[in-house]
Write a structure and sequence with these properties.
Elements: H1 19-22, H2 42-46, H3 62-73, H4 96-102, H5 105-108, H6 120-137, E1 141-143, H7 149-166, E2 173-177, H8 183-190, E3 194-198, H9 208-214, E4 219-225, H10 237-246, E5 250-254, E6 274-276, H11 279-282, E7 297-299, E8 311-315, E9 318-322, H12 339-375, E10 391-393, H13 405-414, E11 421-422, E12 432-434, H14 442-457, H15 476-481
Parallel strand pairs: 2-3, 2-4, 4-5, 5-6
Antiparallel strand pairs: 1-7, 6-7, 8-9, 10-12, 11-12
The structure holds pyridoxal-5'-phosphate (PLP).
Pyridoxal-5'-phosphate (PLP) binds near residues 88, 89 and 278.
Pfam families: GcvP2_C (PF21478), GDC-P (PF02347)
Protein name: glycine dehydrogenase (aminomethyl-transferring)
InterPro entries: GDC-P_C, GDC-P_N, GDC_P, PyrdxlP-dep_Trfase, PyrdxlP-dep_Trfase_major, PyrdxlP-dep_Trfase_small
Length: about 500
Protein backbone atom coordinates (compact mmCIF):
# COMPACT_ATOMS: atom_id res chain seq x y z
CA UNK A 1 0.00 0.00 0.00
CA UNK A 2 1.33 3.44 -0.88
CA UNK A 3 -0.06 6.94 -0.93
CA UNK A 4 0.20 7.55 -4.65
CA UNK A 5 -2.81 9.10 -6.29
CA UNK A 6 -4.05 6.23 -8.44
CA UNK A 7 -5.05 8.56 -11.27
CA UNK A 8 -2.23 11.03 -11.45
CA UNK A 9 0.60 8.99 -10.01
CA UNK A 10 1.46 11.98 -7.84
CA UNK A 11 2.06 11.56 -4.19
CA UNK A 12 1.41 15.15 -3.17
CA UNK A 13 -2.30 14.59 -3.47
CA UNK A 14 -3.12 11.70 -1.21
CA UNK A 15 -5.63 9.17 -2.27
CA UNK A 16 -7.76 7.91 0.58
CA UNK A 17 -9.09 4.44 1.13
CA UNK A 18 -12.07 3.61 3.31
CA UNK A 19 -11.33 2.83 6.94
CA UNK A 20 -12.71 -0.61 6.17
CA UNK A 21 -10.03 -1.09 3.51
CA UNK A 22 -7.30 -0.01 5.90
CA UNK A 23 -8.49 -2.30 8.68
CA UNK A 24 -5.91 -4.81 9.98
CA UNK A 25 -6.72 -7.49 12.50
CA UNK A 26 -5.92 -6.56 16.07
CA UNK A 27 -5.68 -2.81 15.49
CA UNK A 28 -7.34 -0.83 18.27
CA UNK A 29 -7.59 2.77 19.46
CA UNK A 30 -8.55 2.39 23.09
CA UNK A 31 -7.17 -0.10 25.58
CA UNK A 32 -9.24 -1.05 28.61
CA UNK A 33 -7.62 -1.99 31.94
CA UNK A 34 -7.76 -5.55 33.24
CA UNK A 35 -11.06 -6.49 34.86
CA UNK A 36 -10.90 -5.83 38.61
CA UNK A 37 -14.55 -6.37 39.51
CA UNK A 38 -16.58 -9.63 39.53
CA UNK A 39 -17.43 -10.75 36.02
CA UNK A 40 -21.09 -10.64 35.03
CA UNK A 41 -22.47 -13.20 32.64
CA UNK A 42 -23.91 -10.80 30.14
CA UNK A 43 -24.94 -13.61 27.82
CA UNK A 44 -27.36 -14.84 30.41
CA UNK A 45 -28.64 -11.35 31.13
CA UNK A 46 -29.18 -10.18 27.59
CA UNK A 47 -29.50 -13.44 25.75
CA UNK A 48 -32.48 -12.52 23.63
CA UNK A 49 -31.03 -9.24 22.48
CA UNK A 50 -27.54 -10.39 21.65
CA UNK A 51 -26.51 -10.37 18.01
CA UNK A 52 -25.62 -13.71 16.45
CA UNK A 53 -22.39 -12.62 14.81
CA UNK A 54 -19.80 -10.17 16.02
CA UNK A 55 -20.07 -6.77 14.36
CA UNK A 56 -17.26 -6.39 11.85
CA UNK A 57 -15.80 -2.95 12.39
CA UNK A 58 -12.56 -1.60 11.01
CA UNK A 59 -9.68 -2.43 13.35
CA UNK A 60 -7.32 0.54 13.48
CA UNK A 61 -5.20 2.53 15.88
CA UNK A 62 -6.02 6.07 16.97
CA UNK A 63 -3.39 7.80 14.78
CA UNK A 64 -4.60 5.86 11.74
CA UNK A 65 -8.15 7.09 12.29
CA UNK A 66 -7.07 10.64 13.08
CA UNK A 67 -4.95 10.82 9.93
CA UNK A 68 -7.75 9.41 7.80
CA UNK A 69 -10.19 12.11 8.87
CA UNK A 70 -7.60 14.87 8.84
CA UNK A 71 -6.62 13.96 5.27
CA UNK A 72 -10.27 13.90 4.25
CA UNK A 73 -10.79 17.31 5.86
CA UNK A 74 -8.20 18.77 3.48
CA UNK A 75 -10.43 17.74 0.57
CA UNK A 76 -13.19 19.99 1.82
CA UNK A 77 -13.96 23.45 0.66
CA UNK A 78 -14.56 25.87 3.52
CA UNK A 79 -15.41 29.49 4.23
CA UNK A 80 -11.81 29.85 5.45
CA UNK A 81 -10.58 29.00 1.92
CA UNK A 82 -12.61 31.39 -0.19
CA UNK A 83 -15.99 32.78 -1.22
CA UNK A 84 -18.95 30.54 -0.36
CA UNK A 85 -21.88 32.32 -2.02
CA UNK A 86 -24.65 29.88 -1.07
CA UNK A 87 -27.90 31.85 -1.32
CA UNK A 88 -30.11 31.69 1.79
CA UNK A 89 -27.33 29.99 3.79
CA UNK A 90 -25.33 33.12 4.74
CA UNK A 91 -21.89 31.57 4.73
CA UNK A 92 -19.81 34.35 6.20
CA UNK A 93 -16.55 34.68 8.07
CA UNK A 94 -16.58 33.49 11.69
CA UNK A 95 -14.57 36.11 13.62
CA UNK A 96 -11.71 34.54 15.60
CA UNK A 97 -12.46 36.79 18.54
CA UNK A 98 -15.70 34.84 19.08
CA UNK A 99 -13.73 31.60 19.12
CA UNK A 100 -11.19 32.97 21.56
CA UNK A 101 -13.90 33.89 24.05
CA UNK A 102 -15.92 30.71 23.54
CA UNK A 103 -12.82 28.59 24.16
CA UNK A 104 -11.69 30.33 27.33
CA UNK A 105 -11.68 27.91 30.23
CA UNK A 106 -14.14 30.04 32.22
CA UNK A 107 -16.67 29.46 29.49
CA UNK A 108 -16.07 25.97 28.23
CA UNK A 109 -15.42 24.29 31.55
CA UNK A 110 -18.76 25.36 32.98
CA UNK A 111 -21.30 22.60 33.58
CA UNK A 112 -25.07 22.99 33.23
CA UNK A 113 -25.50 21.43 36.69
CA UNK A 114 -23.20 23.97 38.36
CA UNK A 115 -25.03 25.76 41.19
CA UNK A 116 -26.67 29.02 40.24
CA UNK A 117 -24.21 31.09 42.37
CA UNK A 118 -21.36 29.82 40.23
CA UNK A 119 -23.02 30.51 36.92
CA UNK A 120 -24.10 34.12 37.29
CA UNK A 121 -21.80 35.23 34.47
CA UNK A 122 -23.16 32.61 32.10
CA UNK A 123 -26.73 33.52 32.89
CA UNK A 124 -25.85 37.18 32.39
CA UNK A 125 -24.52 36.41 28.90
CA UNK A 126 -27.71 34.56 28.02
CA UNK A 127 -29.83 37.33 29.48
CA UNK A 128 -27.94 40.01 27.57
CA UNK A 129 -28.21 38.05 24.34
CA UNK A 130 -31.97 37.80 24.87
CA UNK A 131 -32.15 41.55 25.48
CA UNK A 132 -30.09 42.32 22.38
CA UNK A 133 -32.23 40.08 20.19
CA UNK A 134 -35.30 41.84 21.57
CA UNK A 135 -33.82 45.14 20.44
CA UNK A 136 -32.95 43.78 17.00
CA UNK A 137 -36.53 42.58 16.44
CA UNK A 138 -38.48 45.16 18.40
CA UNK A 139 -40.33 42.30 20.07
CA UNK A 140 -40.97 41.89 23.80
CA UNK A 141 -39.61 38.41 24.59
CA UNK A 142 -37.01 35.90 23.39
CA UNK A 143 -36.27 32.21 24.00
CA UNK A 144 -32.78 30.99 23.18
CA UNK A 145 -33.62 27.29 23.41
CA UNK A 146 -34.23 26.03 19.84
CA UNK A 147 -31.08 24.57 18.34
CA UNK A 148 -31.57 25.37 14.64
CA UNK A 149 -33.63 27.57 12.36
CA UNK A 150 -36.05 24.78 11.58
CA UNK A 151 -36.44 23.92 15.27
CA UNK A 152 -37.15 27.59 15.93
CA UNK A 153 -39.91 27.37 13.32
CA UNK A 154 -41.30 24.23 14.93
CA UNK A 155 -41.20 25.83 18.39
CA UNK A 156 -42.94 28.95 17.04
CA UNK A 157 -45.69 26.79 15.59
CA UNK A 158 -46.13 24.97 18.92
CA UNK A 159 -46.58 28.39 20.56
CA UNK A 160 -49.14 29.38 17.92
CA UNK A 161 -51.05 26.18 18.45
CA UNK A 162 -50.96 26.63 22.26
CA UNK A 163 -52.27 30.19 21.81
CA UNK A 164 -55.31 29.07 19.83
CA UNK A 165 -55.95 26.05 22.05
CA UNK A 166 -55.90 28.27 25.10
CA UNK A 167 -58.75 30.22 23.50
CA UNK A 168 -60.64 26.97 22.98
CA UNK A 169 -60.00 26.98 19.25
CA UNK A 170 -58.49 24.31 17.04
CA UNK A 171 -57.19 25.80 13.82
CA UNK A 172 -55.73 23.37 11.32
CA UNK A 173 -54.24 25.45 8.51
CA UNK A 174 -50.98 27.30 7.92
CA UNK A 175 -50.49 29.53 4.88
CA UNK A 176 -47.04 29.60 3.28
CA UNK A 177 -45.74 31.29 0.13
CA UNK A 178 -43.88 29.85 -2.84
CA UNK A 179 -40.98 32.19 -1.99
CA UNK A 180 -40.72 30.71 1.50
CA UNK A 181 -37.94 28.38 2.53
CA UNK A 182 -38.79 24.67 2.25
CA UNK A 183 -38.49 24.26 6.00
CA UNK A 184 -41.63 26.43 6.45
CA UNK A 185 -44.17 23.92 5.07
CA UNK A 186 -42.07 21.07 6.53
CA UNK A 187 -42.20 22.52 10.06
CA UNK A 188 -45.91 23.22 9.71
CA UNK A 189 -46.56 19.63 8.62
CA UNK A 190 -44.48 18.33 11.52
CA UNK A 191 -46.55 20.43 13.91
CA UNK A 192 -49.69 18.74 12.52
CA UNK A 193 -50.99 21.49 10.24
CA UNK A 194 -52.47 21.42 6.75
CA UNK A 195 -50.61 23.70 4.39
CA UNK A 196 -52.01 26.12 1.83
CA UNK A 197 -49.48 27.79 -0.42
CA UNK A 198 -50.00 31.17 -2.07
CA UNK A 199 -48.24 32.10 -5.31
CA UNK A 200 -46.30 35.34 -5.35
CA UNK A 201 -47.15 37.97 -7.90
CA UNK A 202 -45.13 38.57 -11.09
CA UNK A 203 -43.00 41.09 -9.21
CA UNK A 204 -41.94 38.57 -6.55
CA UNK A 205 -44.05 39.84 -3.65
CA UNK A 206 -46.95 38.18 -1.84
CA UNK A 207 -50.13 40.09 -2.69
CA UNK A 208 -52.95 40.97 -0.32
CA UNK A 209 -55.48 39.35 -2.62
CA UNK A 210 -53.69 36.04 -2.63
CA UNK A 211 -53.81 36.00 1.18
CA UNK A 212 -57.48 37.10 1.27
CA UNK A 213 -58.35 34.22 -1.06
CA UNK A 214 -57.22 31.57 1.40
CA UNK A 215 -57.71 33.29 4.75
CA UNK A 216 -60.49 31.34 6.49
CA UNK A 217 -61.28 30.98 10.21
CA UNK A 218 -59.33 27.74 10.10
CA UNK A 219 -56.02 29.55 9.49
CA UNK A 220 -53.78 29.48 12.57
CA UNK A 221 -50.98 31.54 11.03
CA UNK A 222 -49.14 32.55 7.91
CA UNK A 223 -45.44 31.78 7.59
CA UNK A 224 -43.46 34.21 5.50
CA UNK A 225 -39.76 34.27 4.84
CA UNK A 226 -38.79 37.94 4.98
CA UNK A 227 -36.69 39.01 3.15
CA UNK A 228 -38.03 36.26 0.89
CA UNK A 229 -35.91 33.78 -1.03
CA UNK A 230 -35.81 36.09 -4.06
CA UNK A 231 -33.98 38.59 -1.85
CA UNK A 232 -36.93 41.02 -1.60
CA UNK A 233 -38.46 42.64 1.46
CA UNK A 234 -42.19 41.78 1.40
CA UNK A 235 -43.62 45.22 0.70
CA UNK A 236 -47.19 44.31 1.73
CA UNK A 237 -46.11 42.79 5.02
CA UNK A 238 -47.83 45.34 7.28
CA UNK A 239 -51.19 44.95 5.57
CA UNK A 240 -50.80 41.17 5.52
CA UNK A 241 -50.22 41.22 9.30
CA UNK A 242 -53.36 43.33 9.72
CA UNK A 243 -55.45 41.00 7.56
CA UNK A 244 -54.28 38.00 9.56
CA UNK A 245 -54.87 39.62 12.93
CA UNK A 246 -58.43 40.56 11.97
CA UNK A 247 -59.11 36.81 11.75
CA UNK A 248 -57.08 36.08 14.88
CA UNK A 249 -54.47 34.35 12.71
CA UNK A 250 -50.83 35.04 13.58
CA UNK A 251 -47.85 36.07 11.48
CA UNK A 252 -44.76 33.85 11.59
CA UNK A 253 -41.63 35.41 10.10
CA UNK A 254 -38.80 33.16 9.00
CA UNK A 255 -35.92 35.39 10.04
CA UNK A 256 -33.06 33.32 8.65
CA UNK A 257 -32.38 36.23 6.31
CA UNK A 258 -31.99 38.80 9.10
CA UNK A 259 -28.50 39.43 7.75
CA UNK A 260 -30.17 41.78 5.27
CA UNK A 261 -32.19 43.89 7.70
CA UNK A 262 -30.23 44.38 10.95
CA UNK A 263 -30.83 47.92 12.14
CA UNK A 264 -32.90 48.63 9.03
CA UNK A 265 -36.27 47.11 9.88
CA UNK A 266 -37.79 45.35 12.86
CA UNK A 267 -40.39 42.57 12.56
CA UNK A 268 -42.04 43.81 15.77
CA UNK A 269 -42.84 47.09 13.99
CA UNK A 270 -44.73 45.45 11.13
CA UNK A 271 -46.80 43.05 13.19
CA UNK A 272 -44.85 39.80 13.45
CA UNK A 273 -45.91 37.40 16.21
CA UNK A 274 -42.97 35.00 16.04
CA UNK A 275 -39.64 35.11 14.30
CA UNK A 276 -36.71 32.74 14.47
CA UNK A 277 -33.10 33.82 14.21
CA UNK A 278 -30.38 31.70 12.76
CA UNK A 279 -27.47 32.68 14.99
CA UNK A 280 -25.30 30.45 12.79
CA UNK A 281 -26.08 32.60 9.78
CA UNK A 282 -26.72 36.18 10.86
CA UNK A 283 -24.53 36.23 13.95
CA UNK A 284 -21.49 34.36 12.59
CA UNK A 285 -21.54 31.20 14.65
CA UNK A 286 -19.84 28.47 12.57
CA UNK A 287 -22.20 26.18 10.68
CA UNK A 288 -22.33 23.56 8.00
CA UNK A 289 -19.49 21.26 8.95
CA UNK A 290 -18.23 23.80 11.47
CA UNK A 291 -20.62 23.61 14.36
CA UNK A 292 -24.13 23.14 15.67
CA UNK A 293 -26.87 25.67 14.93
CA UNK A 294 -28.90 27.90 17.17
CA UNK A 295 -32.38 29.18 16.36
CA UNK A 296 -33.69 31.50 19.10
CA UNK A 297 -37.19 32.90 18.70
CA UNK A 298 -38.68 36.31 19.50
CA UNK A 299 -42.41 36.62 20.12
CA UNK A 300 -45.19 39.20 20.49
CA UNK A 301 -47.10 39.76 23.77
CA UNK A 302 -49.75 37.22 22.80
CA UNK A 303 -47.31 34.33 22.82
CA UNK A 304 -45.23 35.10 25.91
CA UNK A 305 -47.17 32.80 28.27
CA UNK A 306 -46.36 29.76 26.11
CA UNK A 307 -42.61 30.25 25.68
CA UNK A 308 -40.34 27.30 26.60
CA UNK A 309 -38.95 26.96 30.12
CA UNK A 310 -36.65 27.59 31.88
CA UNK A 311 -36.41 31.32 31.17
CA UNK A 312 -33.40 33.39 32.20
CA UNK A 313 -34.46 36.35 34.32
CA UNK A 314 -32.73 39.17 36.16
CA UNK A 315 -33.62 40.77 39.49
CA UNK A 316 -31.47 43.45 41.16
CA UNK A 317 -28.40 42.37 39.23
CA UNK A 318 -28.89 38.67 40.06
CA UNK A 319 -29.74 36.12 37.45
CA UNK A 320 -31.91 33.04 37.86
CA UNK A 321 -33.80 30.40 35.89
CA UNK A 322 -37.57 30.56 36.14
CA UNK A 323 -39.50 27.33 35.61
CA UNK A 324 -42.93 28.39 36.83
CA UNK A 325 -45.02 29.26 33.81
CA UNK A 326 -48.13 27.09 33.84
CA UNK A 327 -48.97 27.63 30.17
CA UNK A 328 -45.47 27.00 28.83
CA UNK A 329 -45.04 24.41 26.10
CA UNK A 330 -42.13 23.04 28.18
CA UNK A 331 -38.63 22.32 26.95
CA UNK A 332 -37.62 21.97 23.32
CA UNK A 333 -33.93 21.28 24.00
CA UNK A 334 -31.88 19.81 26.80
CA UNK A 335 -30.61 22.37 29.30
CA UNK A 336 -30.70 25.89 27.81
CA UNK A 337 -29.89 25.46 24.12
CA UNK A 338 -26.56 25.45 22.28
CA UNK A 339 -24.70 27.61 24.77
CA UNK A 340 -21.42 27.73 22.85
CA UNK A 341 -23.28 29.41 20.01
CA UNK A 342 -24.79 32.00 22.37
CA UNK A 343 -21.29 33.02 23.40
CA UNK A 344 -20.17 33.59 19.83
CA UNK A 345 -23.33 35.52 18.89
CA UNK A 346 -23.18 37.60 22.05
CA UNK A 347 -19.52 38.38 21.42
CA UNK A 348 -20.25 39.38 17.82
CA UNK A 349 -23.10 41.68 18.85
CA UNK A 350 -21.07 43.29 21.64
CA UNK A 351 -18.07 43.79 19.35
CA UNK A 352 -20.10 45.51 16.63
CA UNK A 353 -22.79 47.35 18.58
CA UNK A 354 -26.00 48.62 17.01
CA UNK A 355 -24.26 50.84 14.50
CA UNK A 356 -21.93 48.01 13.44
CA UNK A 357 -24.80 45.58 12.96
CA UNK A 358 -26.54 48.04 10.65
CA UNK A 359 -23.35 48.32 8.61
CA UNK A 360 -23.25 44.53 8.34
CA UNK A 361 -26.60 44.56 6.56
CA UNK A 362 -25.79 47.60 4.45
CA UNK A 363 -22.59 45.96 3.24
CA UNK A 364 -24.30 42.62 2.63
CA UNK A 365 -26.78 44.46 0.41
CA UNK A 366 -24.03 46.44 -1.30
CA UNK A 367 -22.01 43.31 -2.11
CA UNK A 368 -25.01 41.46 -3.55
CA UNK A 369 -25.95 44.45 -5.67
CA UNK A 370 -22.38 44.84 -6.90
CA UNK A 371 -22.48 41.25 -8.17
CA UNK A 372 -25.88 41.92 -9.69
CA UNK A 373 -24.64 45.03 -11.51
CA UNK A 374 -21.61 43.19 -12.90
CA UNK A 375 -23.44 40.04 -13.98
CA UNK A 376 -26.83 41.33 -15.11
CA UNK A 377 -25.80 41.42 -18.75
CA UNK A 378 -24.40 37.92 -18.55
CA UNK A 379 -26.90 35.96 -16.47
CA UNK A 380 -30.66 36.45 -16.71
CA UNK A 381 -32.51 37.83 -13.66
CA UNK A 382 -35.96 36.24 -13.86
CA UNK A 383 -37.60 38.44 -11.21
CA UNK A 384 -35.92 41.82 -11.02
CA UNK A 385 -36.58 44.30 -8.24
CA UNK A 386 -34.98 45.77 -5.15
CA UNK A 387 -32.58 43.02 -4.20
CA UNK A 388 -31.24 43.06 -0.69
CA UNK A 389 -28.56 40.57 0.34
CA UNK A 390 -28.96 38.00 -2.43
CA UNK A 391 -29.70 37.82 -6.14
CA UNK A 392 -31.39 35.00 -8.02
CA UNK A 393 -30.16 34.46 -11.59
CA UNK A 394 -30.86 31.63 -14.01
CA UNK A 395 -29.46 30.14 -17.21
CA UNK A 396 -31.97 31.55 -19.72
CA UNK A 397 -29.28 33.54 -21.57
CA UNK A 398 -27.17 30.40 -21.94
CA UNK A 399 -29.67 28.34 -23.96
CA UNK A 400 -27.49 28.51 -27.07
CA UNK A 401 -24.10 28.04 -25.49
CA UNK A 402 -25.36 25.09 -23.41
CA UNK A 403 -24.04 26.42 -20.09
CA UNK A 404 -26.93 25.36 -17.89
CA UNK A 405 -27.18 26.05 -14.16
CA UNK A 406 -25.62 22.78 -13.11
CA UNK A 407 -22.68 23.16 -15.53
CA UNK A 408 -21.93 26.70 -14.38
CA UNK A 409 -21.99 25.53 -10.77
CA UNK A 410 -19.67 22.57 -11.40
CA UNK A 411 -17.27 24.68 -13.47
CA UNK A 412 -16.94 27.15 -10.59
CA UNK A 413 -15.42 24.36 -8.52
CA UNK A 414 -12.53 24.29 -10.99
CA UNK A 415 -12.02 27.98 -10.30
CA UNK A 416 -11.53 27.11 -6.63
CA UNK A 417 -14.86 28.50 -5.52
CA UNK A 418 -17.93 27.10 -3.91
CA UNK A 419 -20.93 27.25 -6.28
CA UNK A 420 -23.98 29.29 -5.36
CA UNK A 421 -27.25 27.62 -4.31
CA UNK A 422 -28.79 25.98 -7.38
CA UNK A 423 -32.35 25.05 -8.39
CA UNK A 424 -33.70 26.94 -5.35
CA UNK A 425 -35.98 28.83 -4.82
CA UNK A 426 -38.38 26.52 -6.61
CA UNK A 427 -40.44 29.41 -7.95
CA UNK A 428 -37.56 30.24 -10.34
CA UNK A 429 -36.66 27.77 -13.09
CA UNK A 430 -33.00 26.69 -12.97
CA UNK A 431 -32.14 29.21 -10.27
CA UNK A 432 -28.61 30.27 -9.36
CA UNK A 433 -28.96 32.01 -6.04
CA UNK A 434 -25.99 34.14 -5.02
CA UNK A 435 -25.44 35.52 -1.51
CA UNK A 436 -21.91 36.89 -1.18
CA UNK A 437 -22.34 38.31 2.38
CA UNK A 438 -20.60 41.40 3.72
CA UNK A 439 -17.39 39.62 4.67
CA UNK A 440 -16.10 39.24 1.08
CA UNK A 441 -13.63 41.83 -0.18
CA UNK A 442 -14.10 43.54 -3.53
CA UNK A 443 -11.17 41.51 -4.88
CA UNK A 444 -12.88 38.25 -4.01
CA UNK A 445 -16.18 39.45 -5.50
CA UNK A 446 -14.32 40.41 -8.69
CA UNK A 447 -12.71 36.98 -8.87
CA UNK A 448 -16.16 35.41 -8.62
CA UNK A 449 -17.62 37.73 -11.26
CA UNK A 450 -14.71 37.15 -13.62
CA UNK A 451 -14.94 33.39 -13.19
CA UNK A 452 -18.64 33.34 -14.08
CA UNK A 453 -17.96 35.52 -17.12
CA UNK A 454 -15.13 33.30 -18.26
CA UNK A 455 -17.20 30.17 -17.81
CA UNK A 456 -20.26 31.26 -19.76
CA UNK A 457 -18.24 32.77 -22.60
CA UNK A 458 -15.92 29.80 -22.97
CA UNK A 459 -16.63 27.79 -26.10
CA UNK A 460 -17.03 24.28 -24.95
CA UNK A 461 -19.88 23.64 -22.56
CA UNK A 462 -19.64 19.91 -23.19
CA UNK A 463 -16.49 19.57 -21.05
CA UNK A 464 -17.44 17.81 -17.84
CA UNK A 465 -16.52 19.77 -14.70
CA UNK A 466 -15.10 19.62 -12.11
CA UNK A 467 -11.77 18.47 -13.47
CA UNK A 468 -9.43 19.71 -10.79
CA UNK A 469 -11.29 18.63 -7.67
CA UNK A 470 -10.48 15.46 -5.73
CA UNK A 471 -13.43 13.79 -7.38
CA UNK A 472 -14.66 14.45 -10.89
CA UNK A 473 -18.36 15.01 -11.50
CA UNK A 474 -20.31 12.49 -9.53
CA UNK A 475 -23.24 10.62 -11.01
CA UNK A 476 -25.78 12.13 -8.63
CA UNK A 477 -28.65 9.86 -9.66
CA UNK A 478 -26.56 6.75 -9.15
CA UNK A 479 -25.25 8.07 -5.83
CA UNK A 480 -28.81 8.60 -4.61
CA UNK A 481 -30.36 5.41 -6.02
CA UNK A 482 -27.62 2.85 -5.50
CA UNK A 483 -26.55 3.34 -1.94
CA UNK A 484 -23.80 1.04 -0.77
CA UNK A 485 -24.69 0.39 2.82
CA UNK A 486 -22.82 -2.83 3.45
CA UNK A 487 -19.15 -3.65 3.21
CA UNK A 488 -17.55 -6.97 2.43
CA UNK A 489 -14.23 -7.53 4.18
CA UNK A 490 -11.48 -9.03 2.08
CA UNK A 491 -11.36 -12.18 4.19
CA UNK A 492 -15.10 -12.81 4.05
C1 LIG B 1 -31.29 28.10 6.59
C2 LIG B 1 -32.71 28.48 6.53
C3 LIG B 1 -33.67 27.81 7.33
C4 LIG B 1 -33.34 26.58 8.17
O1 LIG B 1 -32.41 26.80 9.17
P1 LIG B 1 -31.62 25.56 9.82
O2 LIG B 1 -30.80 26.16 10.89
O3 LIG B 1 -30.83 24.95 8.71
O4 LIG B 1 -32.64 24.60 10.35
C5 LIG B 1 -34.96 28.26 7.28
N1 LIG B 1 -35.32 29.30 6.50
C6 LIG B 1 -34.43 29.96 5.72
C7 LIG B 1 -34.89 31.13 4.88
C8 LIG B 1 -33.11 29.57 5.70
O5 LIG B 1 -32.23 30.20 4.91
Amino acid sequence: MNYLNKKTGQNIVLEEELLFDRSHKGGYGIGLPKLDVPEVNYKKLYNKNLRKNKARLPELSEPEVVRHFTRLSTWNYAIDLGIYPLGSCTMKHNPRLNEEIARSSEICEAHPYDPIEWTQGHLQIMYELQEDLKKVTGMPAVSLQPSAGAQGEFTGLLLISAYHRNKGKIKKTIITADTSHGTNPASAALAGYNIVQVQTGEDGYVTLDSVKDVLTDDVAAMMLTNPNTLGFFEKNIEQIAKLLHEKDALLYIDGANMNAVLGLSRPGDYGADVIQFNLHKTFTTPHGGGGPGSGPIAVSEKLIPYLPIPRVEEKNGNYHLNYSFSKSIGRVKSFYGNYGMFIRAWCYIKALGGEGLRKVSENAILNANYIKSQLKDVLHIPVDGNHLHEVVFNDKNQKESGWDTSKIAKALIDYGMHPPTVYFPLCVKNALMVEPTETESKDELDRFILSIKEIVTSKDSSVVHPKRAFREKIDEVKAARELKLTYKFKDE
